[in-house]
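Our consortium's second objective concerns turning raw sequence data into structural hypotheses that experimental partners can test. To show how far this objective has progressed, the report includes one record in full. It was chosen at random from the queue rather than selected for favorable results. The single chain below, 329 residues long, was entered without modification.
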Amino acid sequence: MLNTEGQKLKLENIQENQSGNYTCWAHNIETLRFKPSDPLLISVMEKISGASITGPTEVLIAGTSSAKLSCQATAGTIISRKWLKDGNPLSPSNRITFSGDNSSVSIDPLQGTDNGQYQCRLTNPVSTDSVSYNLTVNYGPEDVVMQGRSEIEVGHTVVLTCSASSVPPATFTWTLNGTETAVITEQFTVENAGFSDSGTYTCVAKNSVTGSNISSAPHVLTVKVSAGPNSESQLGAILGGTFGALGCVAVAGGALAYMKKRKRRDSPSNQDLQTPVYENTTDLSPPVVYGNLPTGSTDLPCPVDSENRPDYEELRFKDTATYSNLNSI
């Protein structure tokens, strides 16, 4: 009983202990009757403040560690608590459980996907307070992937990139044909590529906290001859020079054999000897003439200049009938 009369009740510097149901009574001095009003519930609550989350202090590793987060406030009446992760409501699962009053959440076992920002939101009818907590779960490396071109032309540059899902970020080493290289970054750059750069590349990702090492799938890089407009001419010059040299040797050898044979035939001593007679042969005179050789020239053309050399593919005896009916004795 407040022993206060009047149509108004004024409460100043109200405290929580003043919460309750308030009723006013009407009194008629003539009839001496009293009539109460319906009760009015007044709840006096303190504003929530000092919200905080406590969590594990040890290093957490996915698959082997667990975590418990607790949410409290230093002042205020907490009516409800709500948990969120990365801004989205956190729901219970076979790994995630909540206490009866939602003041704590437990995760067991931890996974890499549990990394993130957890938020606890505290409310009562007169106030709301929230607090965040960053949970770090070390995991990986996982999903190690190498990307890059598989073919490159001589003299060009190629970059191979290795990536992995890991907390903390993974470190990388590279091997070429099974031999470890000096590259320790996520990118392997081959500048001015040569044929020795061809082979099988592999990157190995390592997590310094979990101690795990995972290799990528092998990546085969082939360094090939440039497909530019000069490549065919360069190859043609090489082959042309080779066949040209062989043609010079053949022409020189043929001419020498002819001159020796002609000399023996014109010698007086040889004229008295019995000359073998071949069936179905034709007279070998006039001298054998090679195609593409200048008439009457005693010099054998073996030019060095590949651009002005004769066409040795057309080299042949002009009088093919000479050999068409030649039979061995």
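The partners drew two points from this record. The two ends are 153 Å apart (CA to CA). Helices lie at 229-266, 268-271, 321-324. Both points have been shared with the crystallography group to help prioritize constructs.
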